[in-house]
Amino acid sequence: SVRPVGQKRGWIGQVHRRTDVALGYGLRPREAAVVRGMVLGDRSLMPEKLEKSFQRSGITHVLAISGQHVVILAAVIYFAIRIFAVPPTIRAGLTMGLMWVYILIAGAPPSAIRAGVVATFVLAAPLLGRQVSPLHFMTTMLALVLAYNPQLIYSTGFQLSVAAVFGILLLTRPLKSLLERTLLRPLKSPPRQLSNLISVSLAAQIATSPIVAATFDEVSIVGVFTNLVAVPLSGPILILGLLGSVAGNIYPLLAYPLNACNGFLVTMLIQTAQGASSLPFASVTTPGVTLLLVGLFYAGCVPPIIAGRIFSSHNRSMWAALLLLWAVLWLVLVAAGS
Q: Which positions ≥6 away from 140 have C-beta within 8 Å?
C-alpha cells in the first residue's frame, strides 16, 4: 500500500511535480519513490512495507533530508565549482546560495536548517580568517536555534539530528580506538576509511538509540552494519537523483543514463534494507520507553565520556568499552521490561 500524497502549492510544489516526472525517465516506480524520498524528503510514494524494511534495518535516515544530505550536496557543489578555478569568495557564495535553495525546495526540515547553518559558517570561516571548533560551535548554535524556536525541541527529526551530531563528535574517537584494539586488531593495519566508517556509524547509533526507542518502539540491531553499505551508497544516489531531476526537465533523453545508473545503486540499497530486515535479530521492540528512561541513558553516558576526555588517551578504549556496555545493558533492560 502507498500513502496518499500531499499536494504542495506554489513554486515548490511545481518543482516537486517536475522532479516526479523527471525521475520517471529510466527508474521503476519503487526506485523512483526511494530517490524521491532522498532528494525531496517526501516518502509518501514509498510502499509502507518497504519503508518498514528501511526502519527495521536501521537506515531510515538516508531517506530523510538530513545534515548528511546537505553536507554531501555542499561538498559536491564546492569542489565542482573549484574545478573551474573560481575564486574562493565566489565559490563559497555560490555553494551557500545553491545549498539554501535546495533546503527550501526540500521543505526546510529542522535537521537540514541546522546543517545549513553549520555549513554556512564553515564556508565563511576561512574568508573571515577564523577557525571553527566543532563541539563549541555546535553547542552555541544549538542554544541560538532553540532560543529562536524553542518548539524545535519537540521535533523528533531535530532531536535525532542533534543527538547524532554530538554522538559523532564525542564518541567517534574513543570508539575507533576500541575497534582498532579489538575487532580490527587481526588486520594489523586496518584501512583508515573502514575504522572511521564503523566508529561514526556506531557513535550515531548509540547516541540516537533512546530517542528511536521512545519514538518508534523499535531499535535496529543491524543498523551499525547496514550503514556501512547504505551511507556510501546514499551520496551517489542523492547526487545522481538531483542531476537526473535537472536533466529530465531540460530534455528527457538526458535523464535516462543518469537514472539508469542510479537505479542500479537504489536496487542495491533496497536489497540491503530488505535482506537485513528479514533477519530474526534485526531489531528489538521497545514499547513504553519514558522520558525518565531516556534521561537515565544519557546520564549514564556522561561519566565515561568525561573520563575519556580528561584521562590519558591510552585509556580511551576502556572508557569506550564501558560506554558501549552501558548502552547494551540499557537496551536489554528496556526490551526485557516490555
A: none
Helix, strand, coil content of the chain in percent (nearest 5): 80, 0, 20
| pLDDT digit string, tens, across residues 81-121 | 888 888 888 888 898 898 888 888 777 777 777 778 878 87
Task: Measure the CA–CA gap between 286 and 23, rounded to whole angstroms.
Answer: 37
Do 231 and 64 form a contact (C-beta atoms < 8 A)?
no
Tell me what pLDDT residue 53 has: 93
- In angstroms, the CA 156 to CA 109 distance is 11
Q: CA torsion angle for 246, 249, 252, 256 (degrees, to 10)? A: 20
Q: Using one digit for the tens of pLDDT, what is the confidence trace for 220-248?
A: 999 888 988 888 888 889 889 888 888 88
Please state, as a whole number, how many other Cβ atoms lie within 10 Å of the Cβ of residue 126: 13
Locus of grid cell 540516537: 208
Largest separation between any pair of C-alpha atoms in the chain: 60
Closest CA to 223 of 245, 237, 208, 233: 208
Residue located via cell numbers 502549492:
9
Burial 264-303 (b: 16+ CB within 10 A, else e): ebbeebbebbeebbeeeebbbebeebeeebbeebeeebee
Task: Say yes or no to pLDDT of 298 above 90.
Answer: yes
In whole angstroms, give the CA distance from residue 63 to residue 233.
Answer: 12
Q: pLDDT at residue 8 above 60?
A: no
Closest CA to 156 of 115, 220, 221, 210: 210
Each as own residue / partner, the long-range contacts of residues 84-90 (CB below 8 Å, 24 or more positions apart, any chain) are 88/126, 88/127, 89/127
CA 215/CA 243 separation, integer angstroms: 34
